[in-house]
Amino acid sequence: MSWHSLASPLLLAVACGAADAAPAAACQRSSPPHTVALVELFTSEGCSSCPPADRWLSTLATRYGSEQLVPLSLHVDYWNYLGWQDRFAQAQFSERQRQLAQRSASPVAYTPEVFVGMRELRSWHDAASFEQRLRQINRQPARADISLAMQGGETGTLAAEAQFRAPATENGRNSLQGVLVLYEDRLESSVRRGENRGATLRHDHVVRYWSPPFPLRPDGTPQTVRRTLELGAEWNRTKLGLAAFVHDSRTGEVLQAISLPVCVAAAR
């Protein structure tokens, strides 16, 4: 298993809107009454141990479905200086991995590394171990509600909306936060240098946009976030999907997660 240490700043910013009625959307979804597991794979195209984990993540959505888990692939950037520049890598994903690793039994960040419900799962490749963790999470009643909607905008943009409702707190203070994510499926790279030189790598659920966490209201009222997302020139909007989750910034616990797979047609 390959690994390298990391430390990178968080870069993106996001704004919250008022709790308004949702606009008409091309597609939408609401979270179920039970907790959906958030599965995060930290990976890199420069890591020779990562392709099997990438393939494993690609199978999850069809094996378990969106009512059970939300799989996300976060490409870290600390491999980039070792011979191959991963075009999907973002410094903020290296920083997120570092933060999650600090909560785990071993603070060392490595690739491939898997977190389920923001808890490290070293035995992710063992089907019984993974399914046991998944069942533990899915058995829990949902403690937050999330609704997602998206529709095509002008060329090069995507309109996304997420509505969050977290439980009310007695003291008026809340450590709960929401995060909005845009991911892309069916990506492919021909690696010319580094540990995977000569390989053609295929990826799904690759995170393209990850909003910084924003605080949720402590009174339990719905909170709506609307974004007009600028799409990269190489992104394929017919392969994009939305995801969102609510977590407790104090404990690291995920209260709910949701994904909205590709359902927006090509640009007008």
UniProtKB/TrEMBL annotation:
The keyword NAD does not apply. Keywords: Signal. This is DUF1223 domain-containing protein. It comes from the Bacteria. Pfam families: DUF1223. Gene3D superfamilies: Immunoglobulins. PANTHER family: LIPOPROTEIN LIPID ATTACHMENT SITE-LIKE PROTEIN, PUTATIVE (DUF1223)-RELATED, PTHR36057. Residues 1-21 form the signal peptide. InterPro entries: DUF1223, Ig-like_fold, Thioredoxin-like_sf. The keyword Signal applies. It comes from Candidatus Accumulibacter phosphatis.
